[in-house]
Write a structure and sequence with these properties.
single chain; about 700 residues; alpha/beta; Rossmann fold
């Protein structure tokens, strides 16, 4: 036993378990971790190997005799009948049958016909109605004939003599059963002294306490970097923080959903990815609050599977994620359940950053809704967490899952949102939602790591920087979706002692860009324009020349096979303008060559008819065999008459889009100067602007020729 394990046993007697025992026992029984550890905490919370072995044997016997396997249902029913009663371990779900006016119990593994349960049992265990809970249940056998007879009701006359009033017929029900539940105990700790936890925290260093939390979830902290430890801790924040909205997207096999299905009886994992308004929020017929009123955390697994969400569902979800309330009928209902969205990425981060955004795995109905994603408080980068392997599972001691979950549940009533304000101030880039998001992430992590709220300045700084990073990851994707609305992404903080401003950077932002740095090949040029689907996009036009007779044919064009007529006309207009003006820049005849084009939609936004000036420049570049200046994007449209159309898209949206793509320069029509002067200073500093008066002027400036 290590010194750290001995310390854990000393300060948490009866509340810890060796985590490898959980893995060992789980192989024999398919029950949630907190169910097994409830039993392990009762019989194996010791360092005595002999006592542990005796405890394990007792747990095996309990699971063998009381845990119900589906294939043993008939045997268990027989035991209940022959013995008159029997105690089982199973998951119970209760529904309310309004036609029969009865609460009806269903067992997950025990194949019993649904039968009526008393109201008081349901009232004291409301989670039975929403998703069900694992319980230790004593079931009695009473038979079907015990109450079958008709009974007579009597009244007394004034002399005290009984007089038969009427004969009462027993009402038959389809839920009549020879079985009844005589007692039920949810598998969770009845109470937790939070003060004891806080006092024990003082005997552990910051790093030791983090390691204990991770071991309590079954992870081995010695296999994780400090950043990875924080990623794992962030998964716990929905348990400790009310109304917290978390997204984790990453590769398969990183254990994203494990904590929500195994660690806490206060959490429910929606493995299908879908639910209904009635189930999630409020059932109008039964007048009962749904999942949000009965769980601390609701996790949606495989977000890509959320394909049936109605518009009503999405709107109510957005309202709830914004302020923790929703309206159903004439009522406004509040709740404090947190929501976590889990999903897999199927492309590299760099690829998603170049072409779309990091919310790509969400269904289309969500992916273009910036208002929905603005409600997300933190984005956990699943690609930075390690793939699960045997070494990541600890063999040391940690809190039993139920103790850990009760600790998280108890900490929800505290608020550490402003605890960092003693040392730091958020910079001016924050809006209201950014402030709320960072505050809640900071609060949740601080409550986990420092439940007594005793933190040094540097400990506060570490948590604050991580919280800002998680929110900035959301803001960066919002800027890609709606550049004009979400341009302020340089989130950071000010050290109140020194006055220094620190901007928190993202590791993935410094990766590859759509627009290559340095010179491209002659004939290659980048354009920015609004697509036929009305989305701003970046395009690379690759023009190539071969000996010929000055022919431009769409048979030699790739990327426009099904393009609308307006797009094909814009390319034709560009070629016509090029042919009429070629000799004004380049000596020789353009008719010595034939021309081909690859129209490359870099972001899969759909083709655009608004980048024909860029095509003019590309044709001149190819004919001159001279590359355009590096990191340049051209904006503008020429039509058949040779004139240019005004730019209708807001310049701030254009500037943010090209900056995200990696551009350093942009060419704009001279008529855009007035709009340019109204731009924010930071956008002007980020992108150099070059104005042109005509497509010919644009070509001269892009090629640096007189």
């Amino acid at each position: 036993m290590t010194e750290f394990d001995a310390k854990v046993l000393e300060y948490f007697p009866g509340k810890v378990v060796r985590k490898d025992l959980t893995s060992l026992m789980k192989k024999g029984a398919n029950v949630p971790t907190y169910v097994l550890e409830y039993l392990l905490g009762m019989y194996c919370a010791t360092d005595d190997e002999d006592a542990i072995e005796i405890g394990l044997e007792k747990i095996r016997r309990i699971l063998s005799e009381n845990y119900v396997r589906p294939d043993q249902s008939e045997y268990v029913k027989s035991k209940i009948k022959e013995n008159g009663q029997h105690t089982i371990i199973d998951k119970i779900t209760v529904i309310f049958d309004e036609r029969e006016d009865k609460y009806v119990a269903h067992f997950t593994n025990l194949r019993l016909d649904p039968f009526e349960v008393p109201s008081d049992l349901v009232v004291h265990n409301e989670k039975l109605l929403v998703g069900g809970i694992w319980c230790i249940v004593k079931i009695e056998y009473i038979g079907l004939n015990a109450d079958d007879e008709d009974r007579e009701e009597f009244e007394e006359d004034i002399f005290g003599n009984q007089k038969r009033k009427k004969k009462i017929k027993k009402k038959k029900s389809k839920y009549d059963s020879p079985f009844i539940i005589s007692s039920l105990k949810p598998i969770q700790m009845p109470n937790l002294d939070l003060d004891d936890i806080k006092e024990a925290r003082a005997f552990f260093t910051r790093d030791e306490w983090i390691d204990l939390l991770l071991r309590s979830a079954g992870y081995e902290p010695n296999e994780l970097s400090q950043k990875e430890k924080f990623h794992y801790l962030l998964r716990f924040v929905p348990f400790t923080q009310k109304n917290y909205n978390l997204v984790e997207l990453g590769p398969r096999g990183t254990g994203k959903s494990h904590v929500y299905s195994e660690l806490s009886p206060y959490s429910i994992l929606m493995s299908s990815g879908t639910t209904t308004v009635s189930n999630m929020f409020y059932n109008m017929s039964s007048r009962r609050v749904g999942l949000v009123g009965n769980w601390d955390c609701i996790a949606f697994d495989e977000v890509a599977g959320i394909t049936q969400a109605s518009g009503d569902m999405v709107q109510i979800m957005k309202n709830y994620m914004a302020n923790g309330s929703f309206a159903r009928g004439a009522d406004s209902i509040s709740s404090d359940a947190s929501i976590a969205f889990e999903g897999n990425t199927f492309r590299s981060v760099a690829d998603m950053m170049r072409t779309t955004n990091l919310f790509e795995p969400f269904p289309v109905a969500f992916n273009n809704d910036s208002a929905f994603f603005d409600r997300i408080h933190a984005y956990l980068p699943g690609w930075e967490t390690p793939k699960l392997r045997s070494a990541l599972f600890t063999t040391g001691y940690g809190l039993i899952s139920d103790c850990f979950s009760e600790f998280c549940h108890a900490m929800r009533k505290y608020d550490f949102t402003n605890s960092f304000s003693a040392f730091f101030t958020l910079n001016k880039r924050f809006n209201t939602r950014d402030t709320i998001a960072v505050g809640r992430t900071f609060s949740g992590l601080a409550k986990l790591i420092h439940p007594n709220e005793r933190m040094t300045k540097e400990e506060v700084r570490e948590i604050l920087e991580y919280a800002i990073e998680c929110r900035r990851r959301v803001k960066e994707q919002l800027r890609k979706m709606t550049p004009g609305e979400f341009s302020d992404v340089d989130l950071g903080y000010i050290d109140d002692e020194t006055g220094e401003e620190i901007i928190v950077e993202l590791p993935e932002v410094s990766g590859g860009t759509l627009i290559r740095q340095g010179f491209e090949k002659p004939g290659y040029v980048y354009g920015v324009g609004r697509s036929v689907t009305n989305v701003l996009g970046i395009y690379r036009l690759e023009n190539k020349l071969v000996s010929g007779t000055g022919t431009f044919s769409f048979r030699n064009v790739e990327g426009l096979a099904r393009a609308p007529k307006s797009v094909r006309d814009s390319i034709t207009a560009a070629f016509n303008y090029f042919g009429e003006n070629a000799e004004r820049i380049i000596a020789g005849s353009y008719e010595e060559f034939d021309y081909s084009l690859y129209f490359n939609d870099l972001q899969n936004r759909g083709v655009s008819d608004g980048i024909s000036v860029a095509e003019v420049v590309g044709l001149f570049s190819g004919l001159a065999n001279r590359p355009v200046m590096p990191s340049l994007v051209i904006c503008g449209r020429v039509v058949m008459s040779g004139s240019m159309m005004p730019i209708t898209t807001e310049l701030d949206e254009i500037f943010v889009t090209v900056a995200n793509a990696g551009a350093k320069k942009i060419m704009l029509p001279a008529e855009s100067k007035e709009k340019y002067e109204l731009l924010k200073a930071d956008l002007k500093e980020e992108i150099e602007v070059i104005f042109y008066t005509s497509p010919l002027d644009a070509a001269k400036k892009a090629l640096r020729v007189d």
